Amino acid sequence: MTTQTSKKTSTVASLEVRIELLESAVSELTERLAAMPQGRDRGPTSTRTMTEDDAHMVCYGVRKDDSHKVAAEALGLSYAQIYSARNEYTFKQVHKANKVADVAETK
Q1: Is residue 32 located within the same domain as residue 76?
Q2: 74 in a structural domain
Q3: Residue 103 and residue 4: Cα distance in Å, rounded?
Q4: CA 65, 92, 101: angle at the middle one, nearest 5?
Q5: How far lies 50's CA from each of 62, 68, 83, in Å?
Q6: Is 47 within the bounds of a domain?
Q7: Assigned domain for 46 exists
Q8: Could you tell me if 22 and 57 lie in one domain?
Q9: How many domains does the chain have?
């Protein structure tokens, strides 16, 4: 019976050492994770909804040559709103109207 008790004691002691090592590793990893940059900065968040006039401005108007981020900051919109409008995910009617106007001009 004393043999089993000594095995349990040595097992408990070794487990305590392993737990301490794991705790220090978790602490180190937590510190490293906190020091890492937290995602990309895509510019401002939206302060309002995007209108058709905004979509026309960023796709074909005065903001067409601005970057997504710059146009978003200037108009109080988000990067994603500008991206979606320029890539024809949203405001398809604005793109369609512009294509129709381009066809009418070429005739």
Answers
A1: no
A2: yes
A3: 91
A4: 70
A5: 16, 14, 12
A6: no
A7: no
A8: no
A9: 2
Distance CA 57, CA 48 (A): 16
C-beta of residue 76 within 8 angstroms of C-beta of residue 44: yes
> Is 57 in contact with 86 (CB distance < 8 Å)?
no
Alpha-carbon distances of 21 from 1, 16, 17, 47, rounded to whole Å? 31, 9, 6, 48
Task: Please give the chain's pLDDT, 107 residues, in tens.
Answer: 455 555 566 788 889 999 999 999 999 999 998 888 777 766 778 889 999 999 999 999 999 999 999 999 999 999 999 999 999 999 999 989 988 887 777 76
Do 78 and 43 contact (CB within 8 A), yes or no? Answer: yes
For residues 94 and 67, state if they share a domain. yes
Euclidean distance between CA atoms 103 and 95, whole angstroms: 12
CA–CA dist 94, 41 (Å, integer): 28
96 and 65 in a single domain? The answer is yes
Helices (H) and strands (E) in the chain, counts: 5, 0
Residue 90, domain extent: 52-106
- Report yes or no on whether pTM surpasses 0.90: no
